[in-house]
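Backbone-to-sequence.
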């Protein structure tokens, strides 16, 4: 059962114009606490741009961005992160030359630094090791904690990114194509992990994803983007039968 009373993330009449090109057009949607929303749409529809405006790496031309009911439209990425926003990127942002454990430790330290202004050298924070190893165990990577992140498979890198999210205690998580580059045999376990982590933490997740089977399986609601506009925002079952959505995909099955 979805809860809708507490919108964790809201965008209102959001528009983005870059060099005269309308990238986003009047996008309005609200995501409830603990909800998992998938953003789909043809290439160039504006999905990543929407995530960029929500995370603050791009500033909206007009409209509002709300996080936990606070207006962050003019706030930078750091303030948004302090309010609990975390994100992953289409291309991984892990430190590939550091170990799995060091990556999680850095994410934890970055969070502490944001809140307390503390600085510690990587490796000096022995007290934090327990929770860090718990996060690694949660995603099934404790056994490879001393391996370099760069030696992991795509699937395991995505799992490590989820561990970073756990370590940074993000309450709103933006995932940009979490299944990109992942072998089809690794998809089910990664899907299950995203669902479990979301359930355990009650995090709000907005996920751009091209694999429609993943979307159908994981999403509570689906936001369909087309030419920068929000075409539909509904349950997966309703979206696949929506004639306007089918037209946007030129009659191809979703
Ligand atoms: N910084 C920018 N400057 C100019 N144009 C941009 C910029 N960022 C995005 N665009 C354009 O905006 C449109 C939407 O891009 P965006 O990456 O958001 O789409 P997308 O739906 O995520 O696509 P894909 O599925 O291919 O990743 C594209 O036409 C893109 O070329």
């Amino acid at each position: 059962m979805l809860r809708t009373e507490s919108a964790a993330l809201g965008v209102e009449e959001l528009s983005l114009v870059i060099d005269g090109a309308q990238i986003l057009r009047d996008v309005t949607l609200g995501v409830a606490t603990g909800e998992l929303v998938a953003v789909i749409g043809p290439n160039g529809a504006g999905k990543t741009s929407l995530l960029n405006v929500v995370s603050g790496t791009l500033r909206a031309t007009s409209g509002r961005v709300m996080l936990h009911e606070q207006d962050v439209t003019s706030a930078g990425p750091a303030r948004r992160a302090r309010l609990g926003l975390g994100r992953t990127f289409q291309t991984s942002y892990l430190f590939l030359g550091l170990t799995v454990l060091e990556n999680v430790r850095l994410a934890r330290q970055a969070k502490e630094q944001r809140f307390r202004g503390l600085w510690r050298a990587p490796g000096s924070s022995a007290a934090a090791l327990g929770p860090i190893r718990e996060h690694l165990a949660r995603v099934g990577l404790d056994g490879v904690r001393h391996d370099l992140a760069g030696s992991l498979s795509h699937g395991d890198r995505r799992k490590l990114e989820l561990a970073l999210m756990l370590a940074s205690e993000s309450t709103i998580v933006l995932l940009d194509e979490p299944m990109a580059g992942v072998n089809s045999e690794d998809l089910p376990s990664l899907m299950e992990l995203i669902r479990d982590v979301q359930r355990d933490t009650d995090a709000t997740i907005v996920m751009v994803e091209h694999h429609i089977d993943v979307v159908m399986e994981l999403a509570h609601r689906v936001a369909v983007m087309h030419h920068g506009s929000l075409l539909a925002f509904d349950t997966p079952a309703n979206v696949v039968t929506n004639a306007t959505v089918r037209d946007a995909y030129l009659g191809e099955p979703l």
